[in-house]
Amino acid sequence: MNLDEWVIAIMEQLGYAGIALLMFLDNVFPPLPSEIIMPSAGFVAARGELTLTGVIIAGSIGSLIAAAVLYGLGRRISQSTLLNLTARYGKYLMVKPQDVKKALDWFEHYGHRVVFIGRMVPAVRSLISIPAGMSHMPFWKFMFYSSLGTIIWTTFLACVGFYFGENLEKMDQILSQSGNIILVLLLLSFCIYLLRKYGKKSKI
Fold first, then answer.
1. Interior angle at CA 137, CA 30 and CA 63, nearest 5
2. Residues 25, 67: contact at Cβ < 8 Å?
3. pLDDT class of 68 with cuts at 50, 70, 90
4. pLDDT at residue 88, as a whole number
């Protein structure tokens, strides 16, 4: 049984709770990606076993619960402790210290709004909650940005599976193109950040 079949089997047995559980794990165990979970859930919904709205809600709830847990973890540990723990135990969760460092650097450079975009980026999505907690970003603001990014991403992925689940080639093409779209959004965000930063300096 491959990963796609295993994910679908869990959804068939546990329904919406299975989707929420899998999306929770997606945030703490990156090798189980939402790019497989949510399209598979959308495909199950297309077969009439679940509803598309329910799939999106369940996936978003599971993801946001994990985000809140990781945010709480970030508030309680230092950066050096986190990197040391990742170097020692990260291999068991398939998380590398450089992945954690990347998430920390992203948050430092782009600020709170990176939480929104980070929820749609593999690897960063799973870890961006930790630097948000470390910086003591207001919890309500963290959950607001996380909710926006999570709902958009889970809705997109679920709809891809719902409408194109029978056409695996087309679905893979759409998912691969989504990565390029996210990259463009990141570049635009970075350009806006630079313009604002150096624009303020020039005025001074």
1. 30
2. no
3. very high
4. 76
C-alpha span between 54 and 68 (Å, rounded): 21
Contacts of 31 (CB under 8 A, 6+ apart): 94
**Which amino acid type is present at position 169?**
E
Q: What are phi and psi of 25, to 5 degrees?
A: -65, -35
Residue range 119-153, pLDDT digits in tens: 877 667 777 888 888 888 889 999 998 998 899 88
Q: Please name the residues in contact with 44: beta carbons below 8 A apart, sequence gap of 6 or more.
A: 8, 11, 12, 50, 55, 161
Distances (CA, A) of 123 to 91, 96, 127, 164, 204: 14, 10, 7, 25, 38
Burial of 73 (0-12, 13-18, 19+ CB in 10 A): middle
In angstroms, the CA 41 to CA 184 distance is 27
**Residue-level length of the chain:** 204
- Total H helices, total E strands in the chain: 11, 0
